[in-house]
Design goal:
This protein is an alpha+beta fold and 177 residues long. It has helices at residues 2-7, 43-50, 78-90, 162-176; strands at residues 26-34, 54-62, 66-74, 101-102, 108-110, 120-130, 133-144, 147-156. A hairpin with a 2-residue loop joins strand 6 and strand 7.
């Protein structure tokens, strides 16, 4: 019971919108919840729950250009974070259905870019069409010490670039260390 109470109202570990590079970004909601609330029984998740880990999630928007999602998941150790990264990477992802969204392509792994402050990085890209324009979501899964950071940047293909997502993740990683 005490652990559950601690998770409610816990401080969100995701950066505030004003601290994100580029932009201007505006926050579009955020929440915290007990790590492992989805029911995973992996050893890394079990140890994270035992230490009362709280996962943070926040959405952002760069008006007229891009949407950003960041998730910060603390684990009991750096080894657990690296192991859990693969589990988080394998979770099914859904594209929110919205007006004007069509031709959602497959999520495909790509060569990960270098991300300062991380020990393991995986990357993927997913194309889609929004209001008749080619768009994409770029996603990074990164181990930062004993924490996993997941970040997805979506928008028009010409507006979202890997260097921009790397800069955003590096800022989040720096805030955790």
């Amino acid at each position: 019971m005490l652990a559950q109470l601690r998770s409610f109202g816990s401080r969100n570990a995701c950066l505030p919108a004003g601290a994100l590079p580029g932009g201007p970004w505006t926050a579009r909601g955020g929440r915290t919840y007990r790590t492992g609330a989805s029911g995973s029984t992996s050893e890394a998740i079990t140890r994270a729950r035992a230490m009362r880990s709280v996962t943070s999630v926040r959405g952002y928007q760069e008006v007229g250009r891009a949407d950003l999602f960041i998730q910060v998941v603390p684990f009991a150790s750096a080894d657990d974070a690296r192991t859990a990264l693969a589990e988080l990477r394998a979770l099914p992802r859904t594209m929110p259905q919205g007006k004007g969204l069509s031709d959602v392509g497959e999520l495909r792994a790509v060569a990960p870019p270098e991300v300062a402050g991380t020990t393991l990085v995986e990357a993927a890209e997913q194309p889609f069409v929004l209001d008749g324009e080619h768009s994409r979501t770029l996603t990074l899964w990164c181990a930062v010490g004993s924490t996993v950071v997941v970040a997805a940047l979506g928008g028009r293909s010409e507006a979202v670039r890997w260097p921009q997502l790397v800069e955003l993740v590096e800022a989040q990683a720096a805030a955790l260390t």
